[in-house]
Amino acid sequence: MGRIICAGLGPGDPDLISVRADRAIRSARHVAFFRKAGRPGQARRIVAGMLPEGAQEYPMEYPVTTELPFDSPAYIRILAAFYDDWAMRLEQLVTTGADVVVLCEGDPLFYGSFMHLFTRLKDRVPVEVIPGIPGMVGCWNASGTPMTWGDDVLTVLMGTLPEAELIRHMQGADALAIMKTGRNLPRVRQALAAVGRLDQAWLVERGTMPGQRIARLAEVDAADCPYFAIVLVHGQGRRPVTGAPE
Amino acid sequence: MGRIICAGLGPGDPDLISVRADRAIRSARHVAFFRKAGRPGQARRIVAGMLPEGAQEYPMEYPVTTELPFDSPAYIRILAAFYDDWAMRLEQLVTTGADVVVLCEGDPLFYGSFMHLFTRLKDRVPVEVIPGIPGMVGCWNASGTPMTWGDDVLTVLMGTLPEAELIRHMQGADALAIMKTGRNLPRVRQALAAVGRLDQAWLVERGTMPGQRIARLAEVDAADCPYFAIVLVHGQGRRPVTGAPE
Q1: What ranges do the domains of chain A cover?
Q2: If you placed Cys at B98, which of B2, B112, B119, B181 could pair as Cys (CB 3.0 to 4.6 Å)?
């Protein structure tokens, strides 16, 4: 019996992969990764040049992405069948004695698609998960500004939330990381404006990767909604002023 | 002119350090790290066996830790002088042409002491910060359970907050990570009980490190308040039930 090794890839720069995940990837014989159909896939791109010659690749192509509402019965049914199918295929591979490395951007247990395979497989075959630096951590490092000080409260939000919920959570927090922006960006921007924090917000696109862009959200064209971007508001709590830091 | 390289060490297992930070540490000639006076220091312990022979070490010993309230004028004055002094010493080293690796547990820009040196030094000498896996990410991986699903809201709280604030933030969030527990643990526990989430809370002590312990918070003896522990409540949002996951 082999095992599943999920390698957290971190924010995008291959140099930010952990030593353990790097080792697993560079010695992989079987490598699975999610991607949108017809695309190379972000996870696969991160490990370009790292896979050993002859490694067998298993692109797990989402049968649907944004064509259906994510909470519709059809979407749920199709995605469940997709994860069921791949769980079965990976289980079969592992029972032949193979180790399978599953690539996962960021940290696998933090909003990762791998979690859907993990819950299906963890009681059927051995599964090892190697943590990674979450994308948001790469983004605040890319911004070159400390994210949280002292007793700051950090809240992580999805741009898919209704505006009223975004506003409620934004009011309570000191530091904010907002993911799944893309076409939700206008709503995120409105919510930040409503709580008076738009001027402190940064848009980090492709953080730590080639083509990285960092801009004040207020200065980004409203029609410019990059998919792979995170909005950050840095915490200011107990901030060190000259001669009086924590 | 050399530069400051702050190496994020991640949650504690040296195998979870990034490839870039690993390289910086293994080739370091000058290594600085924070520690409590008279202790080996957690950061230094993580890199045991990694430093090249002859590397010069600079333990930066906190002049005070919990003896004074962290918001008292005396504490603020003493700590500010401490950071001023080390910023000056590291600047002097760097201006002689040396590269100085500063070790920092977790991610350096996420509640890290290094941020106090960073704000002082960033306009005086070249500073590179290498991100790391935050301690909380290592802890939820150690717990073996996905942390956030779908639209879950994650809130990160410090156990030092007043109970009413803890309760207010806990009520709004789906997933919770509570740091700086230690002697604040009884208050954290009370707040979780007040919002009906104590039964879902886990205490992760020394996550990813030797002596790791994971226990249900409700079952931990009230007098047992380990210093190096994080409390987690995992998100349940859009959780995959059989046949009906996201």
Answers
A1: 4-133, 136-233
A2: B2
Q: How far apart are CA A228 and CA B93, in angstroms?
A: 40
Of A192, A201, A138, nearest to A170 (Cα)? A192
What distance in Å separates the CA atoms of residue A150 and residue B180, rounded to the nearest whole number?
10
Taking the C-alpha atoms of residue B100 and residue B218, their distance in angstroms, rounded to an integer, is 44
Residue type, B191: A
SS3 annotation, B63-98: CCCCCCCCCCHHHHHHHHHHHHHHHHHHHHHHHCCC
Interchain proximity A151–B161, CB inside 8 Å = yes
**What is the architecture of the domain spanning B4-133?**
3-Layer(aba) Sandwich (3.40)
Q: Which of residues 153-212 of A touch B (CB under 8 A)?
A: 153-158, 160-161, 168-169, 172-173, 208
Residues A140 and A234: beta-carbon distance below 8 Å: yes
> How far away is chain A from the Cα of B33, in angstroms, using its nearest Cα?
18
Residues of A within 8 A of B161 (CB-CB) are 151, 153
**Which sign, positive or negative, has the C-alpha torsion B65, B67, B70, B76?**
negative
User: Whole-model pTM above 0.90?
Assistant: yes
Chain A residues 105-144 with CB within 8 Å of chain B = 107-112, 115-116, 118-120, 122, 129-134, 137-138, 140-141, 144
d(CA A167, nearest CA chain B) in Å: 12
Work out the minimum CA distance from A196 to partner chain B, whole angstroms. Answer: 20
How far is residue B193's CA from residue A213's CA, in Å, rounded to a whole number?
A: 43
| Fold that domain B136-233 belongs to in CATH | 3.30.950
Written as tens digits, the pLDDT of chain B (246 aa) is 999 999 999 999 999 999 999 999 999 999 999 999 989 999 999 999 999 999 999 999 999 877 777 778 888 899 999 999 999 999 999 999 999 999 999 999 999 999 999 999 999 999 999 999 999 999 999 999 999 998 999 999 999 999 999 999 999 899 999 998 888 999 999 999 999 999 999 999 999 999 999 999 999 987 777 777 999 999 998 654 433 333
Comparing A4-133 with A136-233, is the CATH topology the same?
no
Angular region, B151: left φ>0, alpha ψ -120 to 50, beta rest: alpha
Rounded Cα–Cα distance for residues B181 and B230 (Å): 7
Tokens 């019996």 locate to: A1
Ramachandran region, residue A226 (left: φ > 0; alpha: ψ -120 to 50; beta: rest): beta
Are B22 and A17 within 8 A, CB to CB? no
Rg of chain B, C-alpha, whole Å: 20
Q: How many beta carbons lie within 10 A of that of residue B182, not counting itself?
A: 15
